[in-house]
């Protein structure tokens, strides 16, 4: 059998966004194309009984956000490519080609059907005419010397993956009539907001906006109720002065509405919960299971265009929702009175889904050795019935490494979970890599991880730990490192390394490496300044200096104040919490990887670490990836993802 390599990624496919209409299950299938250096998606239909698959929209249109109109006449989707702005398209369910319903110069971002299927509300933006004219000149090849500076006045003026966002433009919700294509503007703002719901009678819209648009130092966003007739808005979560909320689902008679969010009692790391809003009584109360994280916090590097298992009403008073619990997705049933029951608890990662009723759901899932499958889930018996596996041939052709889960005692005798990816070929004495996840409020879990698999195929064991500060283990666990990065979390990782070396004596303790990205990059930097037990290190999209991070990251000021519980006036304390302050005497050879356009952990963080390691005389290398933001390892340009994986392997090999 073949072993998984870096470029094996081009052979993998994932399925997502399943949508059930009568006897057909619509879903997206995405693959990574080597020649086009792009992620290509197609839209398929699968007959529930015959399992016959039908291609509805090909890769040339790169569809996303599929939906069926409430009147059952249309299949809608957004189509956008590298050369064309995303527009809304319709296809008749009775057969026929797709046609565009919108023609917005800046494209559209999202849409919502009206209850009768006659119209669609969608979001778009509009640039000033002068800016549009300049772009037209550039596109036509006409040189322009009238390049304007960007004048910045806002605290949050940039975003990773988007660049500078403070530019003159209008953000709008528009309505388009399906029959006539007539459009009208319903709501406009001078700042970004997000449409989430259109009431059945179209009298009310829900949209997400800043919690306090007038005070830029107030962090958080929440849901506003917009009266179309009076053109007035009011904050639905007014009784909860802090936090972030988003709309999830409305029951059939639109009396009860579910919102996911938090009250910011633990700042950034407050567990997401479900709240029910009684529109008639104007009450807002928490209803999900206590001390559980609603939603998906499990990380991987393979899935594309996944939205996560949904929150959905299955009766006028009860609903289904997902929880991240100990590295897996658990499905719950709840009601408006706060009663909750576990329906499905398996060693699995549900990546997407469509709930049909309280008995059945169509899901996409992954597990430690399964990349992606479309399946039917029985919510009563927990039976998972595969319907389509896009990687069936792949799984038969390639060796997939075994992964073993374990628990150990971390600092303060806390129970910490981990996974060990074993080398594909058993060797009595083999090297291992401690790979630290980002976040930190995410988690490793029961999902397929291409990078870890290809490292295992090269003969490495991979140690994946969920130290405190990560998610899916309760509020105390995730909040325990607030103001205290690099202390008990560092101890958890060191104790976990000791545990794995004892549990797996076939690991060569003289050939243990460390790697990580984002928070994992911070921790890797921290580790090389506090111990030389690791043979070599790879730090990616890292943090090295909290003082400069405060002013240069797109979330810097908020992240530092909420996570480290200090502001810039406490620079001495921030410096002590910075890896750069502890590199004197560092000896571990280190590879530093950074995306040139990373605005979450700006490239200056990697540059500072590189210079500091050079000053210490440490063998180091700095690799910069152009046109790459913080998500390089997950959704970056495919050829650069391959280059990155090869760099990492070459670095470890040099010290093997």
Write structural notes for this entry:
With 656 residues, this protein is an alpha+beta fold. The protein is 17% helix and 38% strand. The protein contains 12 helices and 41 strands. The strands form 10 sheets. The protein has an 8-stranded mixed β-sheet with strand order 34-35-37-36-38-39-40-41, with helices on both faces. Strands 24, 25, 26, 27 and 28 form a 5-stranded antiparallel β-sheet that branches. Helix 7 crosses helix 8 (556-564).
Structural class: alpha+beta
Number of strands: 41
Q: Can you identify the CATH superfamily of the domain at 401-654?
A: Alpha/Beta hydrolase fold, catalytic domain
Which stretches are poorly predicted, pLDDT < 50 over at least 5 residues? none
Helical segment tally?
A: 12
Q: Main β-sheet: number of strands, strand sense, barrel status?
A: 8 strands, mixed
Query: What is the gyration radius calculated from CA atoms?
Result: 25 Å
CATH class of the domain at 401-654: Alpha Beta
The amount of helix comes to 10-25%
Roughly what fraction of the amino acids lie in strands? 35-45%
The CATH topology annotation of the domain at 401-654 reads as Rossmann fold
Note the gap between the termini. 25 Å
**Strand neighbour order, sheet with most strands:** 34-35-37-36-38-39-40-41
Shape: globular
Overall residue-averaged pLDDT value: 96
- CATH structural architecture of the domain at 401-654: 3-Layer(aba) Sandwich
């Amino acid at each position: 059998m073949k072993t998984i390599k870096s470029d094996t990624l081009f052979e993998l496919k994932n399925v997502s966004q399943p949508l059930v209409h009568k006897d057909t299950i619509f879903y997206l299938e995405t693959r990574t194309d080597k020649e086009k250096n792009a992620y290509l998606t197609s839209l398929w239909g699968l007959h529930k009984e015959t399992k016959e698959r039908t291609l509805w929209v090909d890769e040339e249109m790169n569809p996303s956000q599929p939906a069926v109109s409430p009147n059952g006449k249309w299949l809608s989707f957004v189509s956008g490519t590298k050369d064309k702005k995303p527009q809304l398209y319709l296809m008749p369910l009775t057969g026929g080609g797709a046609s565009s319903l919108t023609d917005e110069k800046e494209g559209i971002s999202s849409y919502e059907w009206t209850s009768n299927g006659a119209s669609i509300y969608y979001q778009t933006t509009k640039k000033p005419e002068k800016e549009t004219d300049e772009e037209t000149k550039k596109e036509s090849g006409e040189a322009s010397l009238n390049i304007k500076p960007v004048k910045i006045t806002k605290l949050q003026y940039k975003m990773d993956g988007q660049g500078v966002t403070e530019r003159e433009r209008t953000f709008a919700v528009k309505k388009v009539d399906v029959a006539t294509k007539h459009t009208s503007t319903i709501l406009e703002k001078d700042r970004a907001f997000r449409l989430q719901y259109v009431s059945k009678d179209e009298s009310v819209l829900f949209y997400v906006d800043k919690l306090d648009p007038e005070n830029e130092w107030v962090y958080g966003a929440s849901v506003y109720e917009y009266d179309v007739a009076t053109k007035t808005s009011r904050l639905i979560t007014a009784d909860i002065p802090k936090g972030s909320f988003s709309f999830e689902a409305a029951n059939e008679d639109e009396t009860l509405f579910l919102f996911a969010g938090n009250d910011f009692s633990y700042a950034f790391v407050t567990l997401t919960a479900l709240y029910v809003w009684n529109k008639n009584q104007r009450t807002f109360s928490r209803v999900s299971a206590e001390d559980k994280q609603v939603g998906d916090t499990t990380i991987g590097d393979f899935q594309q265009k996944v939205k996560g298992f949904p929150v959905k009403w299955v009766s006028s008073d009860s609903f289904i929702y997902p929880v991240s619990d100990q590295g897996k997705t658990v499905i719950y049933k709840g009601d408006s009175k706060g009663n909750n029951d576990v329906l499905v608890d398996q060693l699995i990662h549900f990546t997407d889904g469509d709930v049909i009723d309280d008995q059945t759901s169509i899901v996409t899932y992954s597990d430690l050795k399964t990349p992606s499958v479309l399946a039917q889930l029985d919510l009563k018996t927990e039976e998972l019935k595969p319907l389509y596996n896009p990687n069936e041939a792949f799984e038969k052709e390639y060796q997939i490494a075994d992964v073993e889960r374990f628990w150990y005692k971390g600092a303060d005798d806390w129970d910490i979970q981990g996974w060990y990816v074993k080398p594909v070929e058993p060797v009595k004495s083999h090297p291992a890599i401690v790979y630290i996840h980002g976040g930190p409020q995410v988690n490793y879990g029961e999902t397929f991880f291409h990078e870890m698999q290809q490292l295992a195929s090269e003969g490495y064991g991979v140690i994946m730990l969920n130290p405190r500060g990560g998610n899916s283990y309760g509020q105390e666990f995730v909040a325990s490192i607030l103001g205290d990065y690099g202390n008990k979390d560092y101890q958890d990782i060191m104790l976990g390394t000791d545990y794995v070396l004892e549990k797996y004596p076939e690991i060569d303790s003289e050939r243990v490496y460390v790697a990580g990205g984002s928070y994992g990059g911070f921790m890797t930097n921290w580790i090389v300044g506090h111990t030389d037990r690791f043979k070599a290190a790879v730090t990616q999209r890292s943090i090295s200096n909290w003082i400069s991070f405060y002013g240069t990251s797109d979330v810097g000021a908020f992240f530092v104040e909420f996570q480290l519980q200090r502001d810039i006036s406490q620079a001495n304390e921030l410096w002590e919490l910075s890896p750069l302050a502890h590199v004197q005497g560092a000896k571990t050879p280190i590879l530093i990887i950074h995306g040139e356009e990373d605005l979450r952990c700006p490239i200056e963080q990697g540059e500072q670490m590189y210079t500091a390691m050079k000053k210490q005389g440490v063998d180091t290398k700095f690799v910069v990836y152009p046109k790459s933001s913080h998500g390089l390892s997950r959704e970056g340009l495919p050829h650069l993802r391959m280059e990155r994986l090869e760099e990492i392997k070459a670095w470890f090999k040099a010290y093997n």
